[in-house]
Amino acid sequence: MFTKILIANRGEIAIRVMRTCREMGIQTVAIYSEADKNAMHVRYADEAYCVGGPASADSYLRMDKIVELCKQTGAQAVHPGYGFLSENAKFANLLKDNGIVLIGPTAAAMEVMGSKIASKQAVKEFGVPLVPGIDEAIKDTDAALQVAKEVGFPVLVKASAGGGGKGMRVVEREEDFLSSLTMAQNEARSAFGDDSVFIEKYVGSPRHIEFQIMADSFGNVCHLFERECSIQRRHQKLVEEAPSAVLTESLRNKMGEAAVNVARACNYTGAGTVEFLLGDGESFYFLEMNTRLQVEHPVTEMITGIDLVKEQIQVAYGMPLSFEQNDLAINGHAIELRICAEDPANQFLPNVGTVETYKIPQGPGVRVDDCMESGMEIPIYYDNMLAKLVVWGETREAAIARMRRAISEYKITGIETTLMFGDFVMQHPAFLEGKFDTHFIQHHFTGKELDAQPLPKAIAEVLAVAAVHWYEIAGNNGQALTMDAAQSSTASVESPSNWHLTRRNFRE
Known about the structure:
The chain is α+β, with helices and mostly antiparallel strands. The protein has helices at residues 11-23, 40-44, 63-73, 89-97, 107-114, 116-124, 141-151, 177-192, 249-265, 297-304, 308-317, 396-409, 419-427, 429-432, 440-444, 448-452, 457-474, 483-489; strands at residues 4-7, 27-33, 47-52, 77-79, 101-102, 155-159, 168-171, 197-201, 207-215, 221-233, 236-242, 270-278, 284-290, 333-340, 342-343, 349-350, 357-359, 366-370, 385-393, 411-413. The protein has an 8-stranded antiparallel sheet with strand order 13-12-9-10-11-14-19-18. Strands 3-2-1-4-5 form a 5-stranded parallel sheet, with helices on both faces.
């Protein structure tokens, strides 16, 4: 087994990988930027080295520095986490050329699945369902328009490279097609350096269902069931759960088999995620494959009992999977809420600053993957996800109740976060009934709902007492009670729904 692994990442995922390494008796090497010199992952690792300035391009994306450090420290392998270099075929080849193992798939698999066009062409041969459209880059605009007419409007123009909603345009009418095509190509060129786009039928109200797969170098491929990831903003997920509330056992088997075939289509090894759009009835379509560990992998770990990072490391070392498909079963229900430094009441705009108070929930069935502590300043240079709150329950209803309890115990002040949005989701009838799709926020959330929430009784009572107390103190001087003063008086109060405290001045 490897004796030392370099983790080419930061934040919660770096710590999460290091924890498994520690359990396996493997030493860890951390890298960090100048902005992260005091970060938790730096202190957690056995060794840590600065690789450059705050910007990702000057630090976490420095392939040469990472290779140099592997040689310097004796690290035999690199775990890339997610983001940064995790799906970079050039990096995979560079490591291979220097005799260093990438804990991930081959560069060839990354290249096939990193291109939405190439991936569609590859999986088509394995009978994986595809959204109707064209599976090659658009070269002739007139021909593209003809395809769009044949598919039927609305259509989706999508960039072949990258993701996150960039280079993507929904075209409702024929007269808007050419201008939308041009805009998608320009955005794709700017974001990914590749203006290749293709066309597919726009599935109006889909659910986003993804399957976790694991594969070894001996030809064994298994799926570890699905995750429901339909609650998103800007095409990025906020709430994930496993299993989905709507999949029948028959549909689960069909989609699982398709996910395994996607992995076989590119001779995949390691952990990966196959994403599908689920339409009306039992119609589903291949969307893409992420050739890395996913942010939401903990919900799969919670319902299967499998440590996916451990499996990644063992497979990369040349060992077979520790399980077969028949060994796997769904146990209970798990939900994950991404805790991001952004303001849900203000169109989820990023929010940076210093974390004043940080206290995580505890108790049965609660897991927090984080990199946070009180007094920590949130860097502006990286993704604003700070933590992941994950809960498990015997049933979906139990998991939802546990998530609400955990949210009420999670205390973060000094910055705005998505905690209260999570509480809103857990109470919404559409979520409770499992009747939602990728347009959940568009249909059900404006941000004003959070302002409309009444203050918890405990806080309201304390504010009333504080108001009287302040009036008695300041009344003779004719001073008015300020909300800031009232907030100061209640700063240490425990309440059953603490997220209201994270709204500065109680949304005054």
